[in-house]
Amino acid sequence: MTETFTLTLSCAQRPGIVHAVSSFLFEQNCDIAEHQQFDDTQNGAFFLRTSFISAGTLDVERLTAEFRSVAEKFGMTFSFNGCSVPRVVVMVSKMGHCLNDLIFRWRAGNLGAELVAVVSNHETLRPMAEAAGLPFVHIPVTAATKPQAEAQLLELVDEYSADLVVLARYMQVLSDDACRKLHGRAINIHHSFLPGFKGAKPYHQAFDRGVKQVGATAHYVTPDLDEGPIIEQQVIRIDHSFDPARLATVGQDAEALALSRAVRWHCENRILLHGHRTVIFS
What we know:
30% strand; globular
């Protein structure tokens, strides 16, 4: 029985990188199933994602150890990933459109992730989560209890062995400390092309400005509010006839699609972080 593994890496541009990778995989008796690379000539950087299969016995720890000499030669930052499905904790507040979409795609088997729990600062979406068979954890948040609430959240991430935390319209700002602890493994959805229309009633703001497009942005969570590396953006064309309610409806469609794509790409190891940017091998 063959197993599928993925290697992702980044390093400075120089000759011989692809040869070194392919030679290493050949020595491991592996066949390359999918290969993508990107040469960032402006910054002199190189990015690679290679998916490969093996009929023999391999494990991520051994691959990592044996590849280290190659990585050191080229100054690579790299990661091997096996075929296990990433585990995801979803955080919500009162709006359920993104959670509902993630549940649908998870059940259909095309999310690339295993939803393991739903965490919320409100009880509103408990029925939706429990109807899907997901544990629902209510963690109320006030200004006075926020440190304790975040500590409980991080404990839950460890308890459920979560690989990714998804803020599916979770209407609380995570502290700088929580953002740093979840660096590269927390994704948020924002109701606009960042950084437009922040704060309350974004679709009312959009209506007042007479916008002609409604957008949504999925991005990694960082201490800089809504300024994390962008993963995916969606846009829907509108006109003067859209009132705030109709704007919200089409905007929520954009949010759900952008978020689900970001989650799937992350879980398929298709995203490489590069400072404030992302390289995505879709």
